[in-house]
Specification:
The relative contact order is 0.07. The longest helix has 18 residues. The protein is 53% helix and 12% strand. It has a two-stranded antiparallel sheet.
């Protein structure tokens, strides 16, 4: 891949130039690449938060409790 860095007057990197053929190849492999920086919708965030809370409440336990349960089985 031939990427050219773009620098400002101070020599700091400010961007990149990707040839169009290579950009099209990236887009074909990652069709959602141009929307990756968009925020998720509120209903999606709420759903994810609810699921994480539910999983946390149901499955996550202190490691000490796991060790106690394992010792009981030995």
């Amino acid at each position: 891949m031939t990427i050219q860095e773009i620098k400002n007057e101070s020599g700091e990197k400010t961007g990149v130039f990707i040839p169009i053929r290579e950009w099209e190849l990236i887009q074909s492999k990652f069709p959602d690449i141009e929307t990756l920086d968009q925020d998720i919708q509120k209903w999606e965030k709420d759903f994810i938060d609810t699921r994480l809370q539910s999983i946390s409440a149901e499955r996550l336990k202190p490691i000490e409790q796991l060790f106690e349960e394992l010792n009981k089985r030995i």
